[in-house]
Description:
The protein is an alpha+beta fold. Helix content is 17%, strand content 30%. The protein contains 8 helices and 28 strands. Strand 13 and strand 14 form a beta hairpin.
Amino acid sequence: DLSSNLISRIAPGAFHGLTALRRLDLSNNRIGCFSADMFLDLGRLSKLNLSGNIFSTLPEGLFTHVPSLKTLHVGTDYLFCDCQLRWLLSWIRSQAMRVGNESVCVYPTRLHGLELRSLQENQLTCDGPLELPVLQLIPTQRQLVFRGDRLPLQCTASYLDPSVRLSWSHEHRPIHTLEDRGLYVEDSIIHDCCLITSELILSNIDAGVSGNWQCHVTSSRGNSSIGMEIVVLETTALYCAAERVSSNKGDFRWPKTLAGFMAFLPCAVSSSSSAPQEKRAWRRCDRAGRWAEDDYNQCSYANQLTRSLHELTQMSVNVSSGLALAQQLSSLTSRAALFGDMMDVIFVTHLVERLTRLVDHVRELSDHVLDVASNMMAVEEHILWMAQNEARACTRMVQCVERIADLALNANTTGISKVSANIALEALVLRPAALMGLLCTVVQRPPLLPPVADVGHSGSGSDRNSLLNFRCHTVNVSGSPMGQLNQISFDLLLKQKCGFDGLKLLKVLIISAALSGRPAVSSGALMSRSDFSPQSH
């Protein structure tokens, strides 16, 4: 099973020696073309799955080396059912091949959605108008430029067969490299056997550049084109200066833009799809020539961790999916020391809240919520502060940890005790008549082996080795009767000298439900930031 591995190329003879292989799954990768030599030595292969890749056609004779093949899956978002697939349809029928239901035509439009196996050979023709799965020109809209500016144009099209060529024109006149005029046409580049790209660079722009520019696609099947307009402005016009903006959505180089207009840029982070990036960010230049509002919402986060956490927030969280999502979140937050964006913390908080709502249905979730909250203590403190100021993320996280005790005790559990690297949680059920007082103690002893001395590192290594213990016990003390303790919350700040000031927060929440016949509930939660070497308390 080699599915979903971002494979883009398979070398000839890659499966050499695997003569006993019966099933091969290459689905959901980024393979744009196949050759018969890829499947050498697979004479016993009976099932092959190529679906979900980025090819649009398959070459004749592809399956020469897999004579035992009985089941084939070739569904893609770009499958082009034309004369080049006649051989495949004929071969499928001669071999009594079972073809997956997802193997349907996407192009041309007249065959869209039809199953490949249901077609007749006379339907697979190449005489219709040229349809391209991908034909894109960047920039896509009219460009306002100034004298002396430089502007690159990039044209990308589907590489349906070797006859596909790209060329350029300006006001219907063919364009080639002319260095004296600042025109440079780069050689076309073929990507993954399925896309062809050509770049035209306009340097030291003058008034003669104004007008319509077009990229032309020619092939044995027909021709197509795409264009845009360039307007050259005088330097006296008001404009917003070119500016580079770096954010958690990537690095954007905004061009000089005329006052009162909007600038668009493709998202900096490439998408997982095979097509060129279609999502865009925009920024408006106001009439005074100052950059005003912007919008990066269509763009993915640049950091892989942030992107993964954001993707999790888009998933449905319910009783059936909650446990798997919690395990995935626990794994991601094990690297919380690497979090560098407040959105990481906010996304985790959002997910923890959703998981906490399911704890009364899926009891195992409570341990994962506690682990995630414990992992988050390794996040740099200034990141936590930003997340707190932006969305009260830390407060909401603590509330979820405290809520775990309430949910567990409401299920008629007499007590729970949970300890993780940075958080200890103790909850017990007491009857008001039997309680005169409550004493909670916390001990954090140094590890048996001294941690690596690196006070500048705020990872969780020392946390994992420290021994954290938190216990609450009933005691006989004088003072206010328990019935008066309706809801008492207090914070104890412990501060000591350890070469530099360290700070720990002990939060104990005591709740009494002194109603007739109802037990009192007591819960405590300790959250410890080990930004200094642990000491005994």
